[in-house]
Design a protein that fits this description.
Blueprint lengths: L21 H39 L3 H29 L1 H20 L4 H29 L3 H32 L4 H20 L14 H21 L7 H21 L15 H31 L4 H7 L1 H22 L1 H17 L10 H28 L7 H35 L6 H33 L7
Helix pairs in contact: 1-2, 1-4, 1-5, 1-6, 2-3, 2-4, 2-7, 2-14, 3-4, 3-6, 4-14, 5-10, 5-11, 5-13, 7-8, 7-14, 9-12, 9-13, 9-14, 9-15, 11-12, 11-13, 12-13, 12-15, 14-15
């Protein structure tokens, strides 16, 4: 793949070449705006439909048992195809892949918004996941090849990390607003408008296409192996939310996924054009970054899920109020995601910054464990949510930047896809584990007692507290792992 990307387009020129002109530098930030908009669209859809789901269920008349497929269809397609999506970008060009992904995502969203049955809605959600698996790796790959100056790169990844971290909470707020003031279908239609603006920006500011000079054949056996493996892993964790860990739909798929991942890893050492070149995983800082992003899934997806239940079911918040309640978390993420790259990383390096972020996140989650039915938002919820956001922001921007730093341009898509896989699997794993912990805590609280409404409500709060405690433990473990793996100073 040529390292020359886009002349005068705001993307990087030849590595080690002359400093860019002011016009090219300004254009790069417009490229970042386009990439950020596309990334926000993909992240929004992880949570925006959750708020709309009860209204969609009532409108289309599907059962509670089938409701989960509206969520699961997206996560299965997205998670299982990410690595292939990244490799497609490496082989056929990140801009071309980006355009196809944006177009398909917008059209799939339009189909989902117009759905007149559960089957059409689930199919549209699956198609969103397919095209999202093209968009997400292309976003990071384009960002990686656009910003090569260390100072600009730090700022760019700070902004990108803030968008990624805040996107899930923004989805809750936007979903509440659209569902309450328009209807649930607009939670899908909104993506069509975002895709149109992102496509217009792409054609205006991203001129060129970074791809292999000689297109290699896609590793078909490896592609099939990794798709099946990631499907099994994500599906197994999804089943753990509704089935026991000892049930065949849970452990069977997880075990099958583990076996397929082992076979895939072996095949990648033999394949001529591997989907995931193992050289990507050998860098010490990159491995630490992947671990950090895996753990951060607990903060981005696991803990907020239980806080959403608590706010709506125990404190009686509306969907809009629930979304607004997460704004302090968004604010915290934005403050440190941008500040970590600009001020802290050059001085302290990833070992200190990312490990500190893990510790701060753990502290915020620990402060949520004493919540009860009479807790005050201003004094007992807002402060720890804000602290948790500060910690997650410290983790995301450095981990994403180092996860793609010093990657051979021909492997940019695969490295970017690996980052998204870590977040997706981390989110699925944390939700499954924390759901199990919460259910067990509720059962223990009800054991030997008559389930009165008051006792059931108290059991629910106890289950949330247990989930927060375990999530804090995840981050504490992540603090130790990242402190051991990262080198002392950032040297990209």
């Amino acid at each position: 793949m040529s390292e020359s990307t886009v002349d005068e387009a705001g993307t990087a020129g030849e590595a080690g070449g002359p400093a860019p002109s002011p016009a090219a530098s300004a254009r790069r930030w417009l490229v970042l705006a386009v990439i950020g908009l596309a990334q926000l669209m993909v992240i929004l859809d992880v949570t925006i439909v959750n708020i709309a789901l009860p209204s969609a269920q009532q409108d289309l008349g599907f059962s509670d048992d089938n409701r989960q497929w509206v969520i699961t269809a997206y996560s299965l397609a997205f998670g299982s195809l990410l690595l292939i999506g990244g490799r497609v970008g490496d082989l056929f060009g990140h801009k071309a892949t980006f355009v196809i992904g944006l177009s398909g995502f917008g059209l799939a969203s339009a189909v989902g918004g117009a759905a007149d049955s559960l089957e059409v809605l689930v199919a549209a959600r699956a198609l969103q996941g397919v095209f999202g698996a093209l968009v997400a790796p292309a976003c990071l790959a384009l960002l990686n090849i656009t910003f090569t100056d260390p100072r600009e790169r730090a700022r760019a990844f700070g902004v990108y990390g803030a968008i990624t971290g805040a996107g899930a909470a923004i989805g809750l707020l936007l979903g509440g607003v659209l569902t309450e003031y328009l209807e649930w279908r607009w939670c899908l239609y909104v993506n069509l408008f975002i895709a149109v603006f992102a496509l217009a920006g792409t054609f205006a500011y991203i001129r060129g296409n970074d791809r292999a000079e000689q297109r290699d054949r896609l590793d078909l056996p490896g592609s099939l192996l990794v798709t099946a493996a990631l499907f099994c892993v994500v599906y197994g964790f999804a089943n753990a939310q509704t089935h026991a860990w000892s049930s065949l739909p849970t452990w069977g798929f997880l075990a099958g996924g583990a076996v397929l991942l082992a076979v895939f890893a072996f095949w990648q050492t033999r394949a001529a054009n591997p989907v995931l070149p193992l050289r990507i995983l050998l860098d010490r800082d990159r491995g630490a970054s992947f671990a950090a992003l895996l753990v951060s899934g607990a903060g981005l997806f696991g803990a907020p899920l239980f806080l959403t239940f608590y706010l709506q079911q125990d404190l009686g918040y509306s969907p809009i109020q629930t979304g607004l309640a997460f704004l302090p978390m968004n604010t915290g993420i934005m403050i440190t995601a941008i500040g970590a790259g600009n001020a802290l990383m050059p001085r302290f390096g990833p070992r200190v910054v990312v490990s500190a972020g893990m510790a701060v996140s753990a502290l915020g989650l620990a402060f949520l464990t004493p919540l009860d039915a009479g807790s005050s938002y201003l004094t007992q919820i807002l402060p720890p949510v804000f602290v948790m956001g500060l910690g997650i922001g410290l983790v995301l921007a450095p981990a994403m930047s180092l996860g793609t730093a010093r990657v051979d341009p021909r492997d940019a898509g695969a490295a970017s896809a690996s980052i998204n896989v870590m977040q997706q699997v981390g989110g699925s794993l944390s939700i499954a584990l924390l759901s199990t912990v919460a259910a067990s805590a509720a059962r223990d609280h009800l054991a030997g007692h008559r389930p009165t409404p008051e006792l059931v409500a108290r059991a629910g709060i106890e289950s949330y507290s247990a989930a927060y405690g375990w999530a804090a433990g995840f981050f504490a473990a992540g603090m130790v792992v990242t402190a051991l793996l990262y080198r002392r100073r950032e040297h990209a």
